[in-house]
Amino acid sequence: MNWDSPILQVTGISKSFNNIPALNSIDLSLNPGEVRALIGQNGAGKSTLIKILNGAYTLDSGSILFDNKQVQYSSPYQAQLDGMSTIFQEVNLLGYRTVAENIMAGREIKRYGLIDWAACNKFADEAVKILGLDIDVTRTLDSFNVAIQQLIAIARSVSFNAKVLIMDEPTASLDEAEKKTLFKVVKDLKTQGVAILYVSHHLEELFEICDSVSVMRDGRMIETSLIKDLTKKDMVAKMLGKRVEDILSDENARPKVCANDEVILHVEKISGSGVLKEVTFELKKGEILGLAGLLGSGRSEVAKRIFGAEQDDSYQGKISINDITIGVNGPKIAIEKGIAFCSEDRKNEGIIPEMSVRENMSLVILDSLSKNGLIDKEKEMALVDSYIKKLGIKVSDMEQPISQLSGGNQQKVLLARWMANNPEVLILDEPTRGIDVGAKSEITDLILSLAEQGLSVLFISSEYEEISASCHKVLVMQEGISRDYLHYDEISENAILDELGKH
Amino acid sequence: MKLNKWMKKSQHPLLRTEAVWVALTLIIVFASLRYDDFLSPYNIESFFSYNSMFILISIGMCFVIMTGGIDLSVGGVVALSSVMVAYVSPYGIVTALIVGALTGLICGLINAVVIIRLRIAPFIATLAMMLASRGVALLVSGKQSVPISWEGSFPEYGMGLMFDLIPWPVVVCLVIAIMAWVLLEKMPFGRAVLAVGEDEEAAKLMGLKVNKTITLVYVISGVLAGLAGVTLAASFGAGQPAEGVGWELIAISAVVVGGTLLTGGLGSITASIAGVVLMGLIFNILNFENGYGSFTISTYWQSVIRGLFLLLVLIIQAEVLKRLRNKKTAQ
């Protein structure tokens, strides 16, 4: 690593939107072959910084020195052409097109004015081979899993002779095995001298691949240091601007066991939808039950089955709530019986992006808000207002479009949507995906307090740490089959993996 | 083996073009067995002369739909173009083709500007153009059909045959079809069309020129509708301001029957053309039945039958897709 001649040197960057400062005199320098973590809460300014670097935004003041020349790109594509590529959280490639078409898009190799597919495929094949991927580049992109798609996006960037790679939450939709593949590629790129700016909310993974870490808070660069000099708690404290001791005492205050014995939800031997084979468990009043397991183990399918979100003739087994059996007649019945469900796909199955915060929140309870078929808007507004205050949702006002909110605040609106219906069972599928540390702990706190008030929660997450922080009990799932329970004091990543290894 | 891998281009499983080809084959076999004159040169010639207009607008519609848009203005543009062309018919076919194409180009360009600059949804923007172009056609012609000049090369375009074999409009249509196929399958523009249709944001991040691509597809659609107007005026001997009503729907249904996704991102020129032929053949067959005198079906009923048939093909397509998905999840 050459620490003396940085490939990227950012000095004094500031940026305001409508006179509200988003970035305040940011300095950052990145060396060839360095993997730098960039962390901070949502709203800390990470995204703004990235967008200024790759040309999506223009800067108000300051300078960017890249590869010894002053740059200011007009678009992310311009930046990519010049060797500064951004890998976005969501794969920004085309699922219908082949791998080769995706890698070559916008710069197809031509012969006599027509695309020379043979040459394009060959180029693309070499580009993926550099990352150690052995795939058929003439297959369509959507025939590969998200991790491979993510790697293909990296292959495209690297094939533009990338010198700096900005990765924005690249592991957000990857499972453990897929993450390993990605990390290997990151390490390879590092040895090839590519500098990487790695943005992530998953602090534990930073220790695995990053050399150094920069912390942002409220639009300022708080600190840059070597990662070996920090603990995870240090990072959280710096991001939140709190002391480490305060964070620890917060965590110890959490309740550990569910005191109640009354069973609310019985699930007996359910199967179907191609994934579920045999799942049996029960959920007590006020209990938070974690569902752990690898991607594809059937966790989400269990949730959708209970909620009736997917109807399939092949479904079998029995589900009862308060000893009343519920069928598979769609979510309406489930909602009436007091079940609530937040999907893992917040964007497509949760929020209605065109609607305001108010409209999003009241969707489930419109019937009870209506009189003679007309919505009682005053009642609606009072209700929405009370939840905004209760959950501390950050909005300019309740008519703000939900799409303008951060992930954490969107999730709170969705939680409010269900809480307004007074459910007995709340099913949460990856409720904190893509949400920053601060909002994450707020949502966890909220779930804990709801459980204390008697709400039963089924909590699905691929983050073991999160499960152990909030669940009373964990049910381990494997290949559509429910295995054993782990009780509070047994929950750990190793215990879950051990359980999976037993079968 | 290796070479084979490079040359192969996989077709996306969501693009189902089989249904239209199978239906087309079956219907041709059925008709050629049942009607003696079905494969006669006269029937084939007149079938393609007439349907070359629908092939032209369907090719344009296919490009537009592949970007995720829609062009409802084609019927009106055909009518307007036929009127304009009738006025310049004394100057010969070359002038007529240029004027027809220009008329369509201007309409397409206006569509594009309204859609891109004013951010108005294609459905609404082209609906406005559909009304406007029809209105201009009626205004200019005084609600009357405009007779063409029977002197010179223009009428020859509607009546004559190249090499005493192929009607001229069919020749033009064939050339356009080949160009369209090359454009979609072999040129970067085709990739851009599909990319914009699947995910505009991703296309932008790949450095593709989104606005230019969208502009071009509406221009293509307009120009092809303009050329269809030339055919209309030449073969009917007059500019027809009231003709072309509902043609946009015929084009859309042909494109959809061909398997092109209405949401954009996947499509086929050849299958869209097959779709036109398929829809046209149903009319053709009903005409034969009427001619046989076995029963008489009014044009209204023909429309109903065609609608039912369209529904049938779409149901089959949806069924195939569903089976495919189930197979995939079962694996």
Automatic annotation (TrEMBL), chain A:
<dbReference type="InterPro" id="IPR027417">
    <property type="entry name" value="P-loop_NTPase"/>
</dbReference>
<feature type="domain" description="ABC transporter">
    <location>
        <begin position="259"/>
        <end position="500"/>
    </location>
</feature>
<keyword id="KW-0547">Nucleotide-binding</keyword>
<keyword id="KW-0677">Repeat</keyword>
<dbReference type="InterPro" id="IPR050107">
    <property type="entry name" value="ABC_carbohydrate_import_ATPase"/>
</dbReference>
<dbReference type="Pfam" id="PF00005">
    <property type="entry name" value="ABC_tran"/>
</dbReference>
<dbReference type="GO" id="GO:0005524">
    <property type="term" value="F:ATP binding"/>
</dbReference>
<dbReference type="InterPro" id="IPR017871">
    <property type="entry name" value="ABC_transporter-like_CS"/>
</dbReference>
<keyword id="KW-0813">Transport</keyword>
<feature type="domain" description="ABC transporter">
    <location>
        <begin position="8"/>
        <end position="243"/>
    </location>
</feature>
<dbReference type="InterPro" id="IPR003593">
    <property type="entry name" value="AAA+_ATPase"/>
</dbReference>
<keyword id="KW-0067">ATP-binding</keyword>
<protein>
    <submittedName>
        <fullName>Sugar ABC transporter ATP-binding protein</fullName>
    </submittedName>
</protein>
<dbReference type="InterPro" id="IPR003439">
    <property type="entry name" value="ABC_transporter-like_ATP-bd"/>
</dbReference>
